[in-house]
Structure formats: C-alpha cells, structure tokens
C-alpha cells in the first residue's frame, strides 16, 4: 500500500505544476482535434471547388452517418480512458490493460457491425437524413460517398478509441501524431483523387479512409510493442464488469454525438423543407454545412483542451487530490473561453472571406451564407465553457451531470427550438435557434457548477 501511494505521488500527474501539466496534455490533444477538423474543412474545400455545392450538400447529409460512428467510438474511447486513468491513479495497471483489450475488441467488432447495417439500409437512411432525389438532388452523390466511408468504419473507430487510451496512458503526443500522419495523407490524396483522377466525391472518401487506416495501424503497433500498458492476447476478450464501467463513463460523451446526430438530421430536414427566395434548398444546406465545418474548428480546440484536462482530473480524483482537480478545471475553462471568443470574433468579422475559400461566389448564396454565419454562430463564444464543464463532470466520475450538459444544447434545447422558431420565422428561425440554445446552455451550466461549488465549500 505504501509503495502504491509513493508511486502515485511521484507521478507527474500528481506532482507537476498544473499550468505546465495542462499545456503538456492539452496541446497534443488540441492539435489532434484541430488537425482532424481542418482536414475535414479542406476536404470540403476540395469537394466544393471540384464537385460543387451538391457535393458539399451530400457530405452535409453524410454527417449523421459519421456522427453515429463517432458516438460509438467516443463511448468506447472516453469511457475506457476515464476508467484507465482512475485505475492508473490507484496503481491498478492490470485492470488498465484489461480495459485496453476490451476497448480494442469492441471498437473493431462494432465497427464491422455498423458497416454491415448501414450498407444494407443505405438508401432509406440517406433519404431519412435529408438527401433529395432528382437531377438537382444530393442522393446520387451521397450513394457515391457514404459506402466508401462506411468500409473504413472499423479502422476509424479503432483509431478514435485507441487515441483516447493513449492520452490516458500519458502519451498525448502519440495521439496527436497518428492523426497528423492521417491528415497529411488525406490532404495529399484529396486533390490527386478529385482533380487529377477526376473521381469526385468518391476520391474524397477514398482519401479519408486511407488516412484512417494509417492512424489505426500506428496506434495498434504502439500498444502491441511500446505502450506503458500493452494490448495482450489474454485481455482481448471483453468482460462484463469492465464493459459496464466503460459504458457508464463513456455514455455522456456518446450522448453528445447521439444528440448531434439527431440535431443534424432534424436540421437537414428543416432546411430542405424551408423555401427561400433566390436560394434553393440544396444551396442553403450547402451553406449551413460550411458554417458547421467552420464552427467545428473552434469546438475542436475546446474539446482538445477538455481532453487534455481529462487524464489530469481523472488521475488526481482517483488519488484523492481534490485541490488539483479544482484548479485544473479553472485553468481549462479559462483557456477554452479565450479560444471560443476569438473564434466567434473571426466568424462575425470575416464571414465573406471565409465562405469564398469554399468556392462560394454566387451573390444570393453568399448573402445567405454570411447571414447564416453571423446569426447561427452568435453563441459560439460560450462553447468553451460548455465543453470543458461537461468533460469535467465526466472525468470526475459524475456521469449523470456530464450527460445532462452533453445533451442539453443539441437535443433538449436546439431540436425543439428549430421546430418552434422555424414554424414562426421560417429559415430565420432555424438560424436563431443556435445562439438561443447556446446562451441557455451556458446559463444552466454556470448554475450547476456554481451550485456544486457552494456545496463543497459548505462541506455538504
């Protein structure tokens, strides 16, 4: 017991200054998330310039497929990493290795099952997610793009889940590096496949899957050969107790993606059903897709900060160092808020310049795109506080509160607001639903954090 306590106290997560520690863990996590968001944006730029607005509309329709996949991978990766951090903080390395084996097996198996189900019901799912038929519809582009993306699902899920495990094991640079390699591959292959080979959206999908395979291979080799905890044959068979812990800790983060999936489906359908003078539904969907991609950059940085915070809080929570948990949260909230405010200012001040990068030049579409960016992203400044607060409760083992904050904005507020506001103000109502949900979510999160802080000070 004394040896375990000594080992825990000698660990950098328990002893190193928190500001330096957060930078050490957050920067690789931020770069990992940022690289992923940026190469998705570059993907859209190549598709927009090489295929046109229907190509961007098709990838916007594809978001639900991707977010469903991401929700499952996030459940496994975040759930496994939180449980692993707590076990490492308590000196239980054998349990951490069992968790790693369970996460790997589940990610590959569920990825294969996801691919089979989605390919079997691809067309009805695409139509349900907002694809439209006809010569000017996005369905044909969706049917070209999605099957290839789905074939890469097992590799994508393994890469996402194992990168979270790498961060939990004290290797955030590896998590960043594997996605950086994948992003470079994607960025190199995109223009070749789209413009040189003239493969259109199929080329973009092939480039994406190739990058995902490479990221998964890098992480797999690491955990087989060099990891602080290893992927061993004896641990690859999932056990119910560990699965239960993974699902309990991972469910809040998973629910974020489930809520985002539902939101994206409802948003696509609402936009397509609204009529606007001078702007077709597919062009409006394309503009909204661009705006969502832009906002994803700010969200990615905030999520990266939150992920960098997670192993620090998880370890110190497991070790009983509550003062370090509190200070880590404060520093993470401050950093994420600065980022989200800067991102909001850029979107508000330079919308036309940003939209032109995606090849948007038609006056009516440009006018709508500017309006869409300025209104729907008005609440972007609150993103950092929301994201970090949800991840704080998750890392601290308070799954119910983490889940509440995770689904509050996209599901409990945004979805009903879209339908209520669009029924009153049409397309403008859809745009105003976003900032309204952001402000309400921030207020509720602040109230919850403040209430818990007062309880701790009173010793309740």
Automatic annotation (TrEMBL):
<keyword id="KW-0812">Transmembrane</keyword>
<feature type="transmembrane region" description="Helical">
    <location>
        <begin position="431"/>
        <end position="451"/>
    </location>
</feature>
<keyword id="KW-0813">Transport</keyword>
<keyword id="KW-1003">Cell membrane</keyword>
<feature type="transmembrane region" description="Helical">
    <location>
        <begin position="99"/>
        <end position="122"/>
    </location>
</feature>
<keyword id="KW-1133">Transmembrane helix</keyword>
<feature type="transmembrane region" description="Helical">
    <location>
        <begin position="283"/>
        <end position="307"/>
    </location>
</feature>
<feature type="transmembrane region" description="Helical">
    <location>
        <begin position="332"/>
        <end position="355"/>
    </location>
</feature>
<dbReference type="InterPro" id="IPR002528">
    <property type="entry name" value="MATE_fam"/>
</dbReference>
<dbReference type="InterPro" id="IPR048279">
    <property type="entry name" value="MdtK-like"/>
</dbReference>
<feature type="transmembrane region" description="Helical">
    <location>
        <begin position="203"/>
        <end position="224"/>
    </location>
</feature>
<keyword id="KW-0472">Membrane</keyword>
<feature type="transmembrane region" description="Helical">
    <location>
        <begin position="375"/>
        <end position="395"/>
    </location>
</feature>
<feature type="transmembrane region" description="Helical">
    <location>
        <begin position="174"/>
        <end position="197"/>
    </location>
</feature>
<feature type="transmembrane region" description="Helical">
    <location>
        <begin position="236"/>
        <end position="263"/>
    </location>
</feature>
<dbReference type="InterPro" id="IPR051327">
    <property type="entry name" value="MATE_MepA_subfamily"/>
</dbReference>
<feature type="transmembrane region" description="Helical">
    <location>
        <begin position="142"/>
        <end position="162"/>
    </location>
</feature>
<protein>
    <recommendedName>
        <fullName>Multidrug export protein MepA</fullName>
    </recommendedName>
</protein>
<feature type="transmembrane region" description="Helical">
    <location>
        <begin position="53"/>
        <end position="78"/>
    </location>
</feature>
<dbReference type="Pfam" id="PF01554">
    <property type="entry name" value="MatE"/>
</dbReference>
<dbReference type="InterPro" id="IPR045070">
    <property type="entry name" value="MATE_MepA-like"/>
</dbReference>
<keyword id="KW-0046">Antibiotic resistance</keyword>
<comment type="similarity">
    <text>Belongs to the multi antimicrobial extrusion (MATE) (TC 2.A.66.1) family. MepA subfamily.</text>
</comment>
<feature type="transmembrane region" description="Helical">
    <location>
        <begin position="21"/>
        <end position="41"/>
    </location>
</feature>
<dbReference type="GO" id="GO:0042910">
    <property type="term" value="F:xenobiotic transmembrane transporter activity"/>
</dbReference>
<dbReference type="GO" id="GO:0005886">
    <property type="term" value="C:plasma membrane"/>
</dbReference>
<dbReference type="GO" id="GO:0015297">
    <property type="term" value="F:antiporter activity"/>
</dbReference>
<feature type="transmembrane region" description="Helical">
    <location>
        <begin position="407"/>
        <end position="425"/>
    </location>
</feature>
<dbReference type="GO" id="GO:0046677">
    <property type="term" value="P:response to antibiotic"/>
</dbReference>
């Amino acid at each position: 017991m004394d040896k375990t306590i000594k080992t825990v106290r000698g660990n950098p997560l328990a002893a190193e200054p928190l500001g330096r520690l957060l930078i050490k863990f957050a920067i690789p996590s931020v770069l990992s998330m940022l690289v992923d968001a940026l190469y998705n944006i570059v993907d859209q730029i190549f598709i927009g310039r090489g295929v046109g607005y229907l190509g961007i509309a098709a990838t916007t329709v594809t978001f639900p497929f991707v977010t469903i996949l991401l929700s499952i991978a996030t459940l496994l990766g975040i759930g496994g990493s939180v449980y692993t951090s707590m076990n490492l903080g308590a000196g239980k390395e054998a349990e951490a290795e069992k968790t790693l084996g369970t996460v790997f097996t589940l990610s590959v198996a569920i990825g294969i099952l996801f691919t089979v189900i989605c390919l079997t019901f691809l067309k009805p799912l695409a139509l349900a997610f907002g694809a439209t038929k006809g010569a000017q519809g996005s369905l044909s582009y969706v049917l070209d793009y999605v099957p290839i993306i789905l074939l890469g699902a097992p590799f994508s899920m393994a890469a996402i889940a194992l990168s979270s495990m790498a961060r939990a094991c004290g290797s955030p640079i590896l998590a960043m590096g594997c996605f950086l390699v994948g992003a470079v591959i994607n960025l190199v292959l995109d223009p070749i496949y789209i413009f040189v080979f003239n493969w259109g959206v199929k080329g973009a999908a092939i480039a994406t899957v190739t990058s995902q395979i490479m990221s998964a291979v890098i992480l797999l080799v690491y955990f087989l050969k060099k990891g602080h905890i290893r992927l061993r044959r004896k641990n690859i068979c999932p056990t119910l107790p560990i699965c239960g812990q993974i699902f309990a800790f991972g469910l809040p983060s998973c629910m974020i993606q489930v809520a985002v999936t539902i939101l994206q489906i409802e948003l696509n359908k609402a936009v397509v059903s609204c009529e606007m003078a001078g702007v077709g539904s597919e062009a409006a969907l394309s503009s909204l897709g661009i705006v969502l991609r832009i906002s994803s950059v700010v969200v990615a940085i905030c999520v990266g900060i939150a992920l960098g915070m997670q192993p620090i809080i998880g370890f110190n929570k497991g070790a009983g160092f509550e003062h370090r948990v509190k200070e880590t949260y404060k520093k993470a909230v401050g950093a994420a808020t600065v980022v989200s405010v800067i991102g909001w200012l850029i979107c508000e001040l330079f919308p036309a310049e940003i939209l032109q990068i995606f090849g948007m030049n038609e006056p009516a579409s440009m006018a709508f795109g500017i309006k869409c960016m300025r209104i729907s992203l008005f609440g972007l400044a609150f993103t950092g506080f929301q994201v970090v607060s949800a991840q704080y409760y998750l890392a601290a083992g308070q799954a119910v509160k983490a889940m509440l904050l995770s689904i509050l904005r996209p599901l409990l507020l945004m979805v009903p607001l879209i339908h209520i506001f669009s029924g009153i103000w049409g397309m403008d109502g859809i745009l105003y639903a976003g900032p309204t949900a952001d402000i309400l979510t921030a207020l509720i999160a602040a109230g919850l954090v403040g209430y818990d802080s007062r309880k701790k000070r009173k010793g309740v």
